[in-house]
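Today's session is about reading a structure prediction critically. Students often jump straight to the picture, but the first step is always the sequence itself: look for stretches that repeat, for charged clusters, for runs of hydrophobic residues. Only then move on to the predicted structure, which in these notes is written as discrete structure tokens rather than atom positions. Here is the chain we will use throughout the hour.
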Amino acid sequence: MNFADPTDSLGLGMAGMTSPTNAPPAPPANNEALRAHRRTHRSKTMGDMPSSHVTVSVVAPGGGTGINASVYQALGRKEDFTVNITGQSRAQYDRYPVAWGGDGAPAPNLESFAMDLAAQGILDSTDCLVVGSRGGQVVLPTLWRVKGDEVPPTVVMNGGCAMGLPIQVPWPDAAVSFLLLGGKDYFHGNMGMAEYLADAKSRVPVANETTAILLVHEMVHMPQADLLNAVLMHMIRAVTSWKSAGRVPIEEFKFILGNVRRGGWTGKLTYKTGPGDAWSTEAFP
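Below is the predicted structure for this chain, in token form.
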């Protein structure tokens, strides 16, 4: 399988977002205040009420921050969302690690970039991560290895963490994740749609109860802007409420299904309802 993907360009100066730099961002100047704000507004403990305000960190390498800049701009303009772009595509570290063989390179690479993010405390002021492509293949697994289930709920475009990768993915049992898969994405290789979805589900830990997968047959590698605009906000709301309230976010799933049906998309939404093979699945339209 070809793990490398085209590098998306990065839009600069996007409204409602931080501007990226050529290196991983430094911790916020008032990091303790931000941590206190996060503790007040979103507890890591199941059963607490979720906050209406969500701080989103989009990992730029693989995140489609150029091609889907308008989607992130629109989300950042919403009153209840703060969107921060983390890192920069085409930076020196935007390359696979050595484990990827011919596609890999020594540090700085995406693995060292992820470790820098963890060390700098970026996750402490983040309610939801958004990763895509190589971000889901390398950055998220590295964060899981370093921080475990302390990694915030995550939206994973292209489902890179649920592939047969050159590395073992240390997927935490308690991780809250929403995978967006594309039927026209080359990440599925030669698998048909049913096999592709079954393969992704098989890579979720048996004990995990907080994973959802949205497979859209018409989606290409970088989600089309109208598709991402229809689902991203509700995917973020779904994982953050799942984490904080400890209940399956049925209402957000209904919004997502309604939006994709109105948009004429086809596919399946499947999500965990318990450990093991406890999945619920609904096809659309």
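Discussion point for the tutorial: DSSP finds seven helices and eight strands in the chain.
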